[in-house]
UniProtKB/TrEMBL annotation:
A single Gene Ontology CC term: cytoplasmic vesicle
Pfam families: VMA21
Keyword line: Cytoplasmic vesicle, Endoplasmic reticulum, Membrane, Transmembrane, Transmembrane helix
Regions that span the bilayer: 12-31, 43-64
Name of the protein in question: Vacuolar ATPase assembly integral membrane protein VMA21 homolog
InterPro entries found in the cross-reference section: Vma21
GO biological process, one term: vacuolar proton-transporting V-type ATPase complex assembly
Amino acid sequence: MLGVITRFAVTSMVMWMAPVAIISGFYYHMFPGVSQMSSSAQTLTSGFLAVMSVNMVIGFYIFMTMKETPHRPQPDPTFLANTKVGINQPTSSQVIDDSKGKGKIE
């Protein structure tokens, strides 16, 4: 369970940090060739790449989740034993069928 939470937390952080890093890189001209682009081209390219990075992180998270082995929860053995005992014991509310006197008025 801790692995699932850790994987979710890390994926959430990367999903937040990747688009911010891409947009910041375009804004501060950290990528080569960005300074020759027009302002609108920088905005469109950085936005497109930021959206693609989020989609890639989501796809990677889905892939990792599908790859993990399923965990089937096992019922508590004490609970199962008590349930079996309870099923086999008759209760006081059970009606005994007496078909001998049924329908006769005496």
